[in-house]
Specification:
single chain, alpha+beta, 60s Ribosomal Protein L30, Chain: A, six-stranded mixed beta sheet, two-stranded antiparallel ribbon, 2 helices
Length: 126
């Protein structure tokens, strides 16, 4: 049976989806974008600042689901511009320890709210 996960420490869902779904020992986290959950506004700054906010939002959803970034087994990074890959990759790497999760990174024509980065994750619940 699937269980919806919600937290006020990450942006609220802006459509018909859950922040995360827990099922069969796995936590499937919806893509997080650089929204400040305290006031609901987009972070407007460098790609580094945006990526840090995305990772904080993702960590908050994982925590609400009983996980941490250390339990993430797969991520997908969506970039508005692949030219930002190196900078996003450096920040992303600072949030994880080895062994790093499996990952895909793709350039998307357009992301929600015209953001430059979105990251989703799958984690193993302990």
């Amino acid at each position: 049976m699937k269980q919806a996960i919600e937290t006020e420490n990450a942006p609220a869902a802006v459509g018909p989806y859950s922040q995360a779904i827990k099922v069969d020992g796995l936590l499937f986290c919806s893509g997080q974008i650089p929204i400040n959950p305290a006031n609901g506004t987009l972070i407007e700054g460098s790609i580094s600042e945006e990526t840090h906010q995305v990772m904080k939002n993702l960590a908050a959803v994982l925590e609400a689901g009983g996980c941490s970034l250390n339990q993430v087994v797969k991520t997908t990074i969506f970039l508005e511009d692949m030219n930002n890959f190196a900078e996003v990759n450096e920040i992303y790497a600072s949030y994880f320890e080895q062994p790093f999760p499996a990952r895909a990174c793709v350039q998307a024509a357009k992301l929600p709210k015209n953001v430059r980065v979105e990251i989703e994750a799958i984690a193993k619940v302990s």
